[in-house]
Design brief:
Elements (H helix, E strand, L loop, with lengths): L2 E9 L30 H10 L5 E5 H10 L6 H8 L2 E4 L11 E3 L4 H8 L5 E5 L2 H9 L5 E7 L18 E4 L4 E2 L5 E8 L8 H6 L1
Parallel strand pairs: 1-5, 1-6, 2-3, 2-5, 3-4
Antiparallel strand pairs: 6-9, 7-9, 8-9
Amino acid sequence: MGRIHIDLFTTLDGVAQAPGGPEEDPTENFAFGGWQAPLIDEVVGEQIDSGMVGMDALLLGRRTYDIFAAYWPHQGGEIAELFNRLPKYVASRQSPKLEWEGSTLLGADTVAELRELRDKHQNFHVIGSLDFVQTLFAERLFDQLNLWVYPILLGTGKKVFADGVVPTNLRLIEPVVASPKGAVMQRYALVEGAPAVGNMAEIDQA
C-alpha cells in the first residue's frame, strides 16, 4: 500500500497559510503571505530535496494545484522536471479544468477514492494544500507528517491543526534538525491508537 506524506511549513504558533508568496492565499485579508521567504536557507532546501526521493505522485488541493500549474510547467531544474512528470491528483469541491499534463480530478468521495489509489503508487506527497490536509488529518489518512517550524509568530491565519484534527499518535522518525535561520524540521510517522493518559504524581513516586 502506498504511503501518503504531508509536507507543511508552519510558524511557531501554527500558521501555515501562504508561506510562499503574497498572492498564494489572501483569504480573510491575510497580511503575511510569503512569510517563509526571508527565512529559507540552504539547509531547508536540501531537506526538501532529500524528502522528494522516491516520490511518485502528487496529491494537491485546488488552490495549491492552481499555483503549481501556473508555475512549474514553465520552469527548469530537477524539481520542475519531477513535478511535471509525476501524476497529479487534485481534490476539489468544484469541477475545474485541469490543464497541467498528468492531472486527474478526484471524485466527490475523495476519501474512498484515495484509499483505492494507494494501491497505484508508492509515495504520494501532499504539499501545502492546507484546507485539504484537514480532511486527511480527520480521517487519519496519512502515513508521514513532514513539518518545518519557523521561529516567528503571526497570530492570525489558517492553522496546521484546525478543528478537523482527531486524537492521534505520532512517532518522531529521525533526529530534529535546526537550520541556520532557525527552521526546525520534524518528521513524524502515524502510529495506531489514541493518545494514552496517565498520572504524573504516580510517575514521580515510582
